[in-house]
Amino acid sequence: MPLSLSDPTWYPIASSEDLPFRHVYQGQLLGRELAVWRADDGTLNVWENRCLHRGVRLSIGINEGQELKCQYHGWRYANGSAGCTYIPAHPADAPARRIENRKYPVREAFGLVWSAANDDQPFKPFPDAEAKAWFPLRPLPVNASPDDVVAGLARLAPDDQPADMLPGMAVRLETAIYFVQPVDSGRSVIRGLLAEKPANEIAALRHYNEMLTKLRDRLEKAAARKPAPEPLQPSFEKVSVDLATMPDIAIPRGTTFPVLVKRKWQSADGVIGFELADRDGKHLPTFQPGAHIDVHLPNGLVRQYSITNGPGELMSYVIGVKQESASKGGSKALVETVREGDVLAISEPRNNFPLRRDATRTVLIAGGIGITPLLSMARFLDKSSLPYELHYFVRSGETAAFRSELEVLHGEVRTHMGIGRKAIRKEVEAILGLHEFANHVYICGPGPMLEMVQDAAAALGWPDEAIHFEYFRNDKTIDASSSFEIELARSAMTLHVPAGKTVLETMREAGLTVPSSCEQGACGTCLTGVIEGEVDHQDVYLNKSEKASNSCMMTCVSRARSHRLVLDI
Amino acid sequence: MTITLYDFELSGNCYKLRLLMSILGVPYDIVPVDFFPGREHKSDAFLRLNPFGQLPVLRDDDLTLSDSGAILAYLARKYDASGRWFPEAPDILAQVLRWHAVADDITSTASAARLALSFDYPFDVAACQKGAHRIFRLIDEHLWFGEKAGRDWLCAPDHPTTADIACFPYIMLSEEGGISRQDYPALRRWTDRVRRIPGFVVMSGIFPAGPAKQD
């Protein structure tokens, strides 16, 4: 029977012991080359063996524990999702979330690793599988067609005791089962299992290896006399153009998906941890360090929370929520009404706070609940053995959140407790020091602290592009008193923005679909290009030089100083 | 002491010596020899250093040596204080020499296929590839049973020897000769271990392995 590229059967593709930590195994099933690797958390990944960038085999890449790094240009892909998390040629940008390598299903059972060409069939153990403690033999690659190998194995049976042919190219001979992995039309691997552990393991392994090697020699001699079969021609999906380009920061909102609140706990005084997981136990979408999710709350509000996870930890997201007395009802609703077992709608992760991995010195400065994105960054840097310092400022009387998670980090992690306002600036200045080449600082915390650190860094010679920050919210009072015209260059429309109404609202009323999220100038979703006119920036998303460039604006809060703005929309 | 290596950057045999000297921390100078396309290893000047007309040649003060396997043994005996890279124990020494011979077989098959495909040498590519696969199968079997017995290296159970250095380069460069290592998982794992030896250096076509898992 000729092999089919769409054969949904599960076949063994490796032994469990072929996949030690920090190794990338090169495999093949039905003509398709595979890069197979075990993450440090034990998760097995079976991926198409090519980097989406230039097609180089990922099997020569580096298993970094929770990410696989391509050897060619260093693209990193996340454990579980195969989503791209970092592109060294664009160190300051977050890769498009759609860059995701092709994955195949995987199961580890009976000492073997199993996969299939597609998800059409659930994994089904072979007859009697659960009843025995299987002992895997040395796998033997054979340059002969899978059908010929199955037939050759069957012929090993004595005449009075014919071989038992099992579904999925498997043969049972006495107490052993031999699976034939269809590598390609003319190539196979025999993967044998003994029904129990032999008394002398090495002797048994040698014995079966010798027997199978003899069979292989016979099969290969016979195969050499026949014309070689045409290899299978698996198709490789083209990488779309939008995957190959850098993403827009603005991603339309609206795509939400449900998650289960798996765990809710008190991480520190006033900080509640939430663990959110897929309802069916699948992995969640790829995120990058610094990324946040929108959480749609039971009271209708939408709030942003940073993901605290480390690289490749996609089985759940952990967020930290502050119980604020002056909360607008967002955090309060989460803390007070959401319980374990509830289902929440969240957005896919977005990253407005990307982490560079090319710095010689990375300083992470957190204030209070601002620890959340920086914890994720520290975990990524930690896993890649990159140097970093994490300074966590906590008010007196408060306790540090995520303490046990911070304790296991290898970098320089310091908690600064109860330092007065004036003393904090001195402390921050001492931490930062004068700016040197390839030094970067990431700040997250309350508004006044962010401004103080930015100010202190600037005074020490840190350029804007070395100071990275993320606001939780915009505390500024928005002045919406101006009125002006907006010309939408691509939509060929001119609209009037009256006092009291935002640019975003005006565009929506005119029938345009414009993405937004926080609608307070903090999240960056509604970023829009400005072609002409002077912007009255009121957001906390853009940095000083971006604001001064007058080339973009946040339409949810910012307005015009001139009487007319021309927008690239 | 002043060591000079007569070197061709793309030669796996020269790389064997660069690799061991890097691991042992031995400083050396390089004299580049235009092996391809200049065929300088067949020039009169070079033949005076090595009448066999082969790279590499190594000079240590007044001593001139050739043959990569012999030079590996010399460097290990002279500069490796631990005595592990080219051990005294007769049983291990015999195995090291046995695998030095395998390294030469790898050169005449896998390296020859690479020379044919990348350097225009008039060799029978199919025959070279077939010979390399035959040897790789045997090495994979040796290493697979080695792992079962707690031996991570070709000869000694718990540390690499010059045998590992001698066999490594042309195994690692085999793809350049059209020889896939997909069918040799134990051999691929061993190449990870070699690439994690402290002091390991790369050459063109040989990539580093990431760090091992820290507990």
Description:
The complex is a heterodimer of chains A (569) and B (215). Chain A folds into four domains: 11-224, Rieske [2Fe-2S] iron-sulphur domain (Rieske Iron-sulfur Protein, 3-layer Sandwich), CATH 2.102.10.10; 257-346, Translation factors (Elongation Factor Tu (Ef-tu), domain 3, Beta Barrel), CATH 2.40.30; 361-470, Rossmann fold (3-Layer(aba) Sandwich), CATH 3.40.50; 484-567, Beta-grasp domain (Ubiquitin-like (UB roll), Roll). The longest helix of chain A is centred in the middle third of the chain and has 25 residues, at 201-225. Chain A is elongated, with a radius of gyration of 29 Å. In chain A, 18% of the residues lie in helices and 30% in strands. Chain A is built from ten helices and 34 strands. In chain A, α1 (146-154) crosses α2 (201-225) and α7 (421-432) crosses α8 (447-459). In chain A, strands 11, 12, 13, 14, 15 and 16 form a six-stranded antiparallel β-sheet that branches. The N and C termini of chain B lie far apart (41 Å). With 215 residues, chain B is an alpha+beta fold. The relative contact order of chain B is 0.14. The interface between A and B is medium-sized, with 30 and 20 residues.
Task: Present the secondary structure layout.
The complex is a heterodimer of chains A (569) and B (215).
Chain A: E1 11-15, E2 24-29, E3 32-38, E4 44-48, E5 62-63, E6 67-69, E7 76-78, E8 84-86, E9 106-109, E10 112-115, E11 135-136, E12 140-142, H1 146-154, E13 164-166, E14 170-173, E15 176-184, E16 187-194, H2 201-225, H3 241-244, E17 256-268, E18 271-277, E19 292-296, E20 302-306, E21 316-322, H4 330-337, E22 343-347, E23 361-367, H5 371-383, E24 389-394, H6 403-407, E25 412-417, H7 421-432, E26 439-444, H8 447-459, E27 467-470, E28 484-488, E29 493-497, H9 503-509, E30 527-532, E31 535-536, H10 544-549, E32 552-554, E33 559-560, E34 564-567
Parallel strand pairs in A: 23-24, 23-26, 24-25, 26-27, 28-34
Antiparallel strand pairs in A: 1-10, 2-3, 3-4, 5-6, 6-7, 7-8, 9-10, 11-16, 12-16, 13-14, 14-15, 15-16, 17-18, 17-22, 18-21, 19-20, 19-22, 28-29, 30-32, 30-34, 31-33
Helix pairs in contact in A: 1-2, 7-8
Chain B: E1 3-7, H1 12-24, E2 29-32, H2 44-49, E3 57-60, E4 63-66, H3 68-79, H4 90-119, H5 125-148, H6 162-172, H7 185-195
Parallel strand pairs in B: 1-2
Antiparallel strand pairs in B: 1-3, 3-4
Helix pairs in contact in B: 1-3, 1-6, 3-6, 4-5, 4-6, 5-7
Pfam family, one (chain A): Rieske
Domain Rieske (chain A): 10-115
GO molecular function, one term (chain A): metal ion binding
